[in-house]
Every structure is written in C-alpha cells, then in structure tokens.
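B., you asked whether I could sanity-check this one before it goes into the benchmark set. Here's the sequence:
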Amino acid sequence: VSTQSTWGLCRSSFLPFETKQPRLFDITQNNMGKLFKAYLGGGVIYRCVNCRSHLALHDELVSKAFQGRHGRAYLFGNVVNVTIGPKEDRVLTTGLHTVCDIFCISCEDNIGWFYEEAFEESQKYKEGKYIIEKEKMVKEIIP
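And here's what the prediction gave me:
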C-alpha cells in the first residue's frame, strides 16, 4: 500500500497531537510529496518495530486488553506517523465496527486499525481511537 494512495481516504494522523504539542520537539516538513514526520519528545514512547518511527506517547495508551490479528494489541487515543486506509465494515470479537487499517508512514507496514464507528452502544468508547498490535511496536524511554 502506498502512503500516497491512502491519504485523504479516511483520516490522516501524521500531524502532531493537539493536546500534547509541547512534548513534540521536531517535525520534519518536506515539500513535493515527501513525508511529514512527527518526533515525540520526553518520556515513554512507542515506535514502529521495523523502521523505529515514533507512533505514540505512553500517555495516550487507553488499554492493553485488546486482541489483534497477531496477538495482543493496545488501544491508543492518538497516534502519529501513520496513514489510514479505506473504511470497511468488519466483524470483530466485540461486534460489527467500521474500521480503517493503519500503516506506518515510513515503512508502510500494516500496524493495526482505526475505529471509525462502533454499532453497539457498549463499544462507542472505541470510536476515534487506534489499535496498534504489540508485535508491530517497541517501547522506548526518551530522556
């Protein structure tokens, strides 16, 4: 999946956190179709296991009690450096959801999914949140 082809289909999450902007210390912005990449500063962060791109702050972690395609997965309130694929309805263990797969902006690996809509009332809390599979990320402490 090309990052160019996935931009704008659902939502894009390569911009800095709105509520966490002071924790960002560098954003590389290139023109002419190049990547916009966010770098998270200070504290515990999660990075892509393949290319080490920053993905999320530990402060954004909502739950570790999720199941992904390849084992355990974490639910995050916000992530950076991902592109989001097209919407699709998927029957998951907790019922029907509209989700979009998410891909690392650098290596384009499928790292999880974004909850666009939950159809059951008890699952509405997931809307607007991201699942990243544990095997697709590494935890790191940034001084």
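One thing to flag: Residues 75 and 131 are 5 Å apart (CA to CA). Otherwise nothing jumped out at me.
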